[in-house]
Amino acid sequence: MTAERDAAPAGVPSAPTTPPSSAGATSPSATETPSPTTDEAVLGQPRRSRSTAVGLTAVLILAGLLFTTSAQTSHGTALRADRGDAAAVVLAEERTRDERAQKVATLTQQIQAGTAAEGTVNSGVAALQRKIKDLAIPVGAAPVRGSGVVVVLDDAPHGTTLQAGVTADDLVVHQQDVQAVVNALWRGGAEAMTLMDQRVISTSAVQCVGNTLLLQGRVYSPPYRIAAIGDPARLRRELSLSPQVLIYQQYVSTVHLVYELTPAASLVMPAFDGSIELRYAHLPSPSPSPSPSPWPSPSPSAVSPGSAAVPGSAAGTVPGSGTASGSGTASGSGTASGSGAASGSGTGPAGATPSASGGP
Asked: 264 - beta bridge partners?
């Protein structure tokens, strides 16, 4: 914080004062005017005023060009969208979600009322209703009441001093901490569970977004309250045996994170009203690779060194079936493969008449 300065410190020169008039000096008369300079007398205005006017004109022209370019680019729309306040956007989306959830609840009640009326006259519908009623509590589709435990997780108090090897990230509750408690309660035989004010089922996913928690489209801030209905002794035992919960309790002792476990004689939990569709990530299907061609690539014909590939000669390889004939001089030896007769006339190096055999 900077202190105010009442007076200039020593060593700093003070502001200059007006010197007193010397004796005998004559002050200018009020009616006297200064004589114009040469430029002012000739041109009638100062040189600086003319350069200022030229610069101002150039700036105005440039600004006009920029405005014209922006108008043509935007076509009457905003070039930069207004992002607004992020918190206001989140609150608006939550209000929209709550309104739609209310509509879904109203429609669900209408469907249930219509189904119940149909069950009074239709035996098949009545049988399905009995099965739904039996499965409602295990799947979380019905409100429940019972005894159990309540676990509260919270960040370290504000102003906590960072010790050696501890970062600010260690002072907050993370997604894995909430998941560790939830999984331990499920292993302890929890019959029903809530996280904050929502019913949690086997397919509920807890996600950490910054320093907040996202559960089924709603955002929550700490402290996080997790309640479970079941045998309190068994639930407490599984929490004490969970390795992840034990690690969190170590941070409770080190950086003062909050972990509170209390028994509850009567817990009331609402029915699950979220989506039961299981969503998961999957790899995209790979693009099909081009199939290899069934035809082999052509290879150049082999010619023996010192031999000339003369059309009609017996030197070389003749694939396929048919008759190859011709006249010429064949120098060298070769093999003709295929079915048929290959004949030619000429004189070989040793004076013998070359012939082609049908073998390889």
From this structure: 148
